[in-house]
Amino acid sequence: MQLILGSGSPRRQDILKQVNVDFTVRTPNVDESQIKTTKPIEKVSALCKLKAASIIFEADDEIIVTADTVVSYKNMIFEKPKTKQEAYTMMRALSGQTHEVHTGVLVNSKHKQELFVETTKVIFYPLTDEEINDYIETDEPYDKAGAYGIQGLAAPFIKKIDGDYYNVVGLPIGRLMQVLKNFNDH
Ligand SMILES: Cc1cn([C@H]2C[C@H](O)[C@@H](COP(=O)(O)OP(=O)(O)OP(=O)(O)O)O2)c(=O)[nH]c1=O
C-alpha cells in the first residue's frame, strides 16, 4: 500500500510527517465554488470527494487521502477569507463565542472508499479590535478556514477546545490512522 496525501496544505503534510508516516503528495485542483450546499457536513464531504476526483491513481495499491476543513458558526460557514475585511468579520463573529471546525476526510483506493467528518468545538476569548486588527495584518488568516490558525499567532485567542486539536489544524490524525489500520484493500 502506498499512501498519497491529496492535499497541498502544508499543515496536513506536517501532521503526517509528525507521526512518521510515509506518503507522497499529489495536489488536488478543483473549483470549490461548484459546491453550493450551505450545510457544513455536506460541504466538507462534497469537497473531499471533488478533490479526490481530481487526483489520478498511478498504481493499483495506492490509497489517496483528501480532506477539507470549514468553520461553522450559527448558520454560517467560514472558509478562507479573501480580504482583510472578510477576515475581520470572521474574527469579530468568533470572538467570545463557541464555533465548530469540521474536517471531512476521504480515504480512497481503487476498490473502496471511506468518508468521515470529524468535528471539534472551539471557544474563543473575547477579542479587542486591536487584537483582531493586528492579527489580520499578518499572513496567517488568508489560507485558513475561519481566518485563524490555532497552531500559530491565534493560539492566545483560544479558551477551550472540545475534540481533536489536529482536526482544527486540518487533519484528524487519530481517526484517520484508525481508518487506515482497518482499511482492507480487497
Ligand atoms: C481553523 C484552522 C484551519 N486551518 C487550515 C487547515 C486547512 O489547510 C485550511 C482550510 O483549507 P482547505 O480547503 O481545507 O484545504 P487547503 O486548500 O489548505 O488544502 P487542499 O485543498 O490542497 O487539501 O485551513 C489551520 O491551519 N488552522 C486552523 O486553526
Would you kindly provide a written description of the structure presented here, covering whatever features stand out?
This protein has one domain: Maf protein. It is built from six helices and seven strands; from the N terminus they run βαβαββαββαβαα. Strands 1, 2, 3, 4, 5, 6 and 7 form a seven-stranded mixed beta sheet that branches. The mean pLDDT is 97. The structure holds thymidine-5'-triphosphate. The site of thymidine-5'-triphosphate has 24 residues, from β3 and α5. Its EC number is 3.6.1.9. Pfam families: Maf.
Brief account:
By secondary structure, the chain is of the alpha/beta class. The chain contains 6 helices and 7 strands, in the order E-H-E-H-E-E-H-E-E-H-E-H-H.
Key attributes of the depicted protein:
186 residues, alpha/beta, Maf protein, 7-stranded mixed sheet, 30% helix, elongated, binds thymidine-5'-triphosphate, hydrolase, cytoplasm, nucleoside triphosphate diphosphatase activity, ITPase-like_fam, Maf-like
Tell me, what's the shape? elongated
Beta-strand content bin: 25-35%
Helical proportion, percent range: 25-40%
Overall pLDDT score? 97
Tally of DSSP helical segments: 6
User: What is the CATH third-level topology name?
Assistant: Maf protein
Please give the number of β-strands: 7
Largest sheet, if any?
7 strands, mixed
Order of helices and strands: EHEHEEHEEHEHH
What is the total number of structural domains? Answer: 1
Oligomer: single chain
